[in-house]
Amino acid sequence: MCIAPLLFAMSWARKGSALALVVVMALALSPDASRGADGDALALVRGMFNQARISFFAKMKLSAPGGLVREIEVSHAQNGHGSMTYMEITSPYILKGTRFLSFDNDNAADEHFTYVPAVRRSVEVPQWTLEQPFLGSNFYMIDITEPKMDKFSYRSVGEGEVSGRSCRKVESIPSDSEYPYGRIVYCIDPNIWMSVFTEFYDRQGQLLKVWKPTRLEQVDGVWTPLHQTMEDVQTNTSSEFEVLEIHQHAQFPEQIFTKAYLDR
Length: 264
Known about the structure:
Strand order of the largest sheet: 6-5-4-3-2-1-13-12-11-10-9-8-7
CATH superfamily: Lipoprotein localisation LolA/LolB/LppX
Oligomer: single chain
Number of domains: 1
CATH architecture: Clam
CATH topology: outer membrane lipoprotein receptor (LolB), chain A
C-alpha cells in the first residue's frame, strides 16, 4: 500500500496512488482510434503500477487537517501473488503501537487488519472503512493500495505539462457504482512511469481531491515522492506525507507479515 501515492508510486501507490493542476488537450478520435487509445491508456497505467512493484522500508510523517501529525514506519514487500504491507504508528504517544497489516492479492480478495493497543487485539478491516479518511487525513486507505485493474476502464483524455514534465492523461472509471470516486484522472509522465498529478472526482462528477508530489527524486534508482500532498478541494483542506527515511529494495524477516507479529 501509491503509503498513499508513495506506495502507489512504488507499489503505497497503492495499489495507490498516485495522483491536479493539469493542462487539458481534448482528443477528437474516430472509433478505431479510440480503441487504440484505450489500449495505450491501459498500458500506461499498468506500466505505472508494475514499475513500482519493489520492496522498501520507510519512516514517514503524515500531517492532517487540524494540526494532526502522525509518524509511521512502513515495511512493504512483494511476493509471488501480490504484495504485503506492515505499518506501525510510532508517534504521538496516544496512538503509538497501532499497527496495520495488508495483503494486496493479484488474484484473490485483499485482506486488511489493524491492531489497537487499547484493546490488545487485532481485527479485520471491512471494505467500507478503506473508503474513509486514513488517520484523520485526506488520504483514504484505497488511495494507498493498488487497485484491481479489471475493475476499471481506462481511456486517454489528452496531454499536458505539470511542473515542467510532459504527461499523458488517463481517465480511470470504476465499474462499481458504490466506489467512492466516480472517476480518477492520472497525469502520467511516461519517462518515469509515474503520475505527477492526479484528480479524484466524486460520484456526482465534481472534483473532490487533488494529489501531487511536491518533492520528487530518485532514491537508489527509484523515482520517489519524498513529499506529497492530498488536497480536498470541496472542504479546502490539505494533508501531507513526508518521507523521513527510506531504504529501497529492503529485505525483511518473513514473520513481519504475519498475524502473529501484528498481535505480538
